[in-house]
Design brief:
Helix content: over 70%
Number of helices: 10
Distance between the termini: 75 Å
Length: 329
């Protein structure tokens, strides 16, 4: 039979023996600096102390120590767990790093996938344009006739009078939804060993080309080309980049280099994600231009000059952004 007060003595001895470790962990967790920015030795210390506290929690519960001790250790363990395992918050500086350096560098590194995606999209687009200029009825094989006639009529009227701001705003929302949907399909279906990305790049290229050829053959070529030129620098390029991301993802599943397919996909995941996020940002810019600038009543000559500047800007960004650092492609 235990002597009266023996449990209290045991608890006091337990607290006295472990208090220094608890206080050390508490002080490390009170630092405002993000845990991943601490010295590696301190990060290792936090991990070691966290495991010790978890063991102390179980010991305190098993020994029936006071609820104040158990609650204190529970809270300390929870704080340490959150600091060690929570996702790093995505800050504005992180987004800037992606846009200014990581996205263009990853795109240059992925030039083979970009070249393949460009060919799969642009060549069918050109074939669609030429074929439907020769025989406009061919466009109905890929685009409903009613939609083609509606587009031809709309572009025949032109945008000399512009549109109301409310229409521009609502159409911008539609463009975001539509364009992101297209690019997501082009990218996400790359999980099928890249075959889905190939299909959607080719089918979208043919569809856009057929629509262009039909509207041009209907006599509204100047209007539709002027409309597309400005936002096309961002929108069409983003579709191709989404395809490149999908192809890279599919390639990781084909060529695993000794890893499991899941392991290979994880290795390529950060690069694929940078391409996908970068393309999404470009689509947002494209939707704004397509919603407010492309249908405006500004003179065609000004739109052409602006479009040329936007295309040069996009190309220069991909070629030069993110350079100047050691090892930067």
């Amino acid at each position: 039979m235990k002597a009266p007060g023996s449990q209290r003595v045991s608890q006091d001895a337990f607290v006295a023996a472990r208090r220094a470790h608890w206080q050390q962990l508490d002080q490390l967790l009170l630092q405002n600096k993000a845990l991943h920015r601490l010295h590696p030795d301190l990060i290792a210390t936090v991990g070691r102390l966290y495991r010790m506290v978890c063991a102390d929690v179980m010991r305190a519960r098993g020994a029936g120590y006071g609820q104040d001790i158990v609650a204190h250790l529970d809270l300390l363990a929870a704080r340490a767990h959150n600091r060690l395992y929570r996702a790093t918050p995505y800050r504005i500086s992180r987004l800037w790093a992606l846009v200014a350096r990581e996205f263009p560098r990853t795109l240059r590194e992925s030039w083979r996938f970009l070249a393949a995606a460009s060919a799969l999209f642009v060549l069918p687009l050109l074939v669609g344009v030429v074929a439907c200029l020769t025989d406009p009825d061919l466009a109905t094989a890929v685009v409903p006739r009613g939609q083609l006639e509606m587009l031809a009529e709309a572009y025949a009227e032109g945008f000399g009078g512009g549109r109301s701001e409310s229409v521009d705003a609502s159409m911008t929302g539609f463009y975001v939804y539509n364009n992101v949907g297209i690019s997501f399909r082009v990218f996400a279906t790359g999980i099928f060993f890249g075959l889905g990305s190939v299909f959607f790049l080719v089918s979208n290229g043919i569809s856009i080309g057929a629509t262009l050829g039909y509207v041009i053959s209907a006599g509204a070529g100047r209007s539709i080309v002027t409309f597309i030129m400005g936002h096309g620098a961002f929108e069409l390029t983003a579709i191709v980049i989404s395809g490149a991301a999908g192809l890279r993802m599919g390639y990781a599943l084909v060529r695993t280099e000794g890893l499991t397919r899941l392991g290979s996909l994880r290795r390529q995941g950060p690069a694929v994600a940078r391409l996908a996020v970068g393309a999404a940002i470009m689509l947002g810019i494209a939707a704004f231009i397509e919603g407010f600038w492309s249908p405006s009543g500004v003179a065609d000559e000004i739109k052409w000059a602006t479009a040329a500047g936007l295309w040069l800007l996009v190309m220069a960004y991909f070629v030069f952004a993110g350079r100047g650092e050691e090892g930067a492609p």
